[in-house]
Amino acid sequence: MFEDSMTNSMFDLSLVICTRNRATQLAQTLKRVSAIQSQLKWELIIVDNGSTDTTSTVVAEHTAACDHPVQMVVEPGQGVSCAKNAGWRAARSAIVVCIDDDCYPESDYLDSIFDCFANDPKLGFAGGRILLHDPTDRRITIQEHSKPFFFPPGSFIPAGAIQGANVAYRRAALIEVGGFDTWFGAGALYSGDETELMARISAAGWNGGYDPKAVVYHHHGRKTANDEWRLRRWYDRGRGAYYAKCILNRRMRNIYIIKWLLTRRHNSLITTGREIVAGLDYVARACRTGRSLKG
Questions:
Q1: What is the pLDDT of residue 2?
Q2: Which pLDDT belongs to residue 292?
Q3: Measured between alpha carbons, how far is 4 from 220 in angstroms, rounded to an integer?
């Protein structure tokens, strides 16, 4: 099954970058993408999530100059999860790799990601290191662990262990769980789109992993303590909704109740309070909209 999924695809990998009104930053990222060195067959998918700036021009110029196939996908649905769903569904490979539009991959990035999946036919998701590009930026939204780690099926996925700026999925796993939940992610109700998705993939019986050899540099541009405070508050809200959704899922309930109670020992009362409020908000919204609470 693994060999068929890998060999019958048009490409070995699909690299997906979602963007909205960040043409200047996107141009810098695409310049670094052009420096990737690999013998793999890969495609680039750029998802424009409703931009009104010169994003289309930047993509057209990159497409004309590069030597790998480029797909431009327009997804007007609000939120990055809508864009990511459009991206992986357009992919013509068994492995879908996602980086942010402000991340610069190492030249061997795609090879490092591909090796993770080639070595484990049951691997559903994998992430890598996210290093700070600009030392004057706040030390947030990075992942610097230098040792690999593994998530067996049915694992608790800690928020931030693998981040959306550097993550890849087996397309079969995305299909099995239905892709991203559009209530989560930038531009939606809650943060944590990638973590919530990986939790469902793990619960469905797939392995997960982290490999520090796959490296991107994050050029996020947040400089002030207030920038960091607002982001962490957004993350607190996302974790609360994430925990609530997982606790409501019968396959995931026990481990997430235990792990959430354990993590509270290391959190402030303010952080825990934000998580609880967000979790209750998630449950209330799910009840009002008829979203299943049974998992």
A1: 39
A2: 75
A3: 38
